[in-house]
Design brief:
336 residues, alpha/beta, Rossmann fold, 6-stranded parallel sheet, 10 helices, 6 strands, 38% helix, globular, disordered N terminus
Length: 336
């Protein structure tokens, strides 16, 4: 369900169900801006009349209203945009929600009407801090009685364009968009596995971006750009490629145990950033949240969600395995 480099159905559904739309041809012969323009017009989760589904549309279409009572869903950064709309839609499923937020005051204001349900817990978490992630995971496990059915890794940043390191010493885009979610998954993994049942498999859904087509995985010795070469848009794309790779590895390692991984690109969401002539098919946050919810709860073999091609490095078992092992070291979990 990612932006532009679709996979064939067989490979995508076996290893992360990463499905997409359009593959630009002769990618090496076009400029970076042209590549971004090409991938920015792809949209997903449309109805038969061409209109975009909203997250609420999907919940209603699949008959999920009140269907997830007793299930526990963790959603990172539900304060604004896609995360906020996903939280609103998931609330009507009857599930218990743990919503993380970096700024509690803002979250409390924006989530008015959601927090009052009695089934929602707001958890402080800064994705730019691994210690904050650890504290949040401990809170979630304690308050959920070690039960987690679905993890939605939604939080992410793309506005910091200067090379910046976190307090943990990692490049901030990779740390926020990838490492924090990788660590959160590892800490919640025992609960996700234990909560899975034959009737309801556990899932991890990671939000990615079609920009991933412009990069390949960095070398293990250059995640912090020790060798130079930092370019903002490429590092953002690199962090989103990492989300896809981790979804594949989750599926590969744990799919047979009832824990599945998916990655989804929400499309181009309406904002000041998208005020360009070539953005002619952008979506509202509620529409963008549809792919997030589909990835989190859509059943295996969603035949109406498919693409027309893929970029070869989108599916790369060797790189995916290397990233997994490297990430374990980076977050301080050398062995599982």
């Amino acid at each position: 369900m990612d932006g532009c480099d679709g996979t064939n159905d067989g490979e995508s559904r076996r290893d992360g169900r990463h499905v997409a739309g359009l593959q630009p041809t002769h990618r090496s012969n076009i400029g970076l801006l042209d590549q971004l323009q090409m991938i920015s017009v792809v949209t997903f989760a449309s109805t038969t009349d061409g209109k975009h589904l909203t997250a609420l549309d999907f919940i209603q279409k699949e008959g999920l209203e009140g269907a997830l009572v007793g299930k526990v869903i963790v959603l990172t950064e539900a304060t604004v945009g896609i995360g906020l709309e996903a939280a609103r839609a998931l609330l009507i499923t009857g599930a218990t929600l743990f919503l993380t937020a970096r700024v509690r005051k803002k979250a409390t204001k924006n989530l008015a009407g959601v927090l009052e349900s009695g089934r929602v817990t707001l958890v402080n978490m800064d994705n730019g801090s691994l210690s904050s992630v650890r504290a949040a995971a401990a809170t979630i496990l304690t308050q959920s009685n070690n039960k987690v059915n679905i993890l939605i890794a939604n939080a992410g940043i793309n506005e910091i364009q200067e090379y910046t390191l976190t307090d943990d010493g990692y490049e901030i885009l990779l740390a926020t968009n990838h490492l924090s979610h990788f660590l959160l998954f590892q800490l919640l993994k025992p609960a996700l596995l234990a909560s899975s049942s034959p009737e309801f498999h556990s899932r991890v859904a990671l939000t990615t971006s079609s920009t991933h087509l412009i990069v390949k995985l960095n070398g293990s010795e250059n995640y912090k750009y020790e060798k130079g070469g930092y370019i903002f848009i490429k590092e953002y794309a690199h962090s989103k490629l990492a989300n896809i790779y981790i979804a594949h590895e989750i599926e590969r390692q744990y799919g047979h145990r009832g824990l599945h991984g998916s990655s989804a690109h929400p499309g181009i969401i309406k904002s000041i950033v998208t005020q360009k002539e070539f953005i002619d098919n952008e979506k509202t946050p509620a529409e963008g949240a549809a792919t997030t919810v589909i990835a989190a709860r859509g059943q295996d073999g969603d035949d109406d969600m498919h693409g027309t091609g893929w970029v070869s490095h989108t599916y790369d078992p060797d790189s995916e395995s290397r990233l997994w092992k490297d990430s374990l070291k980076l977050v301080g979990l050398v062995t599982e």
